[in-house]
Design brief:
This protein has 3 helices and 5 strands, in the order E-E-E-H-E-E-H-H. The protein is α+β, with helices and mostly antiparallel strands and about 160 residues long. It has one domain. The strands form 2 sheets. Strands 1-2-3 form a 3-stranded antiparallel β-sheet, with no helix packed on it. The N terminus is likely disordered.
Length: about 160
């Protein structure tokens, strides 16, 4: 037995164009719109945007949590997805890297600043730069503290290199 009205796909598009089904007589009376591939691509893009948003929020919240009083609340940048919704695609936390009143307080603060900068699982280049700056400030504070201690120990002593 031979079936003469077998349906065949006429065309298929990855861009959501109309696809048609035709029978052996060339009749395209049955039409449909195949948006499944386009919809799938949109869903994939939305999932990527959601994943990026989650990662950015986690990254910035980690800075804030570890930085404590020296860190600001996160601020975010956004992009519009194919669904018209806004998604977070970047962020930043400001952190106070100024020196404190005493070298000891500066050292403590810079240890927190460095820990906050390096706290996320994948620190950015900017995070690494902040950590480096905190280390340099801490090192200067340690030098000052050592110099102050040395001067205090030798106060009132007449030290001569020619003695």
């Amino acid at each position: 037995m031979k079936i003469s009205n077998t349906l065949q796909y006429n065309k298929y598009s990855f861009y959501g164009n109309d696809s048609a089904i035709q029978n052996n007589n060339g009749d395209k009376s049955i039409k449909y719109t195949d948006n499944s591939v386009e919809e799938e691509n949109i869903e994939i893009e939305i999932e990527k945007l959601k994943k990026t948003e989650e990662e950015v929020i986690a990254h910035e919240n980690t800075h804030t949590a570890v930085g404590g009083k020296y860190a600001s609340a996160p601020s975010y940048s956004y992009t519009t997805g194919p669904d018209g919704k806004s998604y977070i695609n970047g962020g930043e936390v400001s952190i106070d890297t100024s020196e404190e009143r005493t070298p000891s307080d500066t050292i403590s603060k810079m240890q927190i600043v460095r820990a906050a900068a390096l706290a996320p699982a994948n620190p950015s280049g900017q995070d690494m730069a902040v950590a480096s700056k905190a280390s340099q400030i801490e090192m200067r504070a340690r030098q000052k503290m050592n110099n102050d201690a040395y001067n205090e120990l030798n106060k009132g002593k007449d030290i001569s290199v020619y003695a």
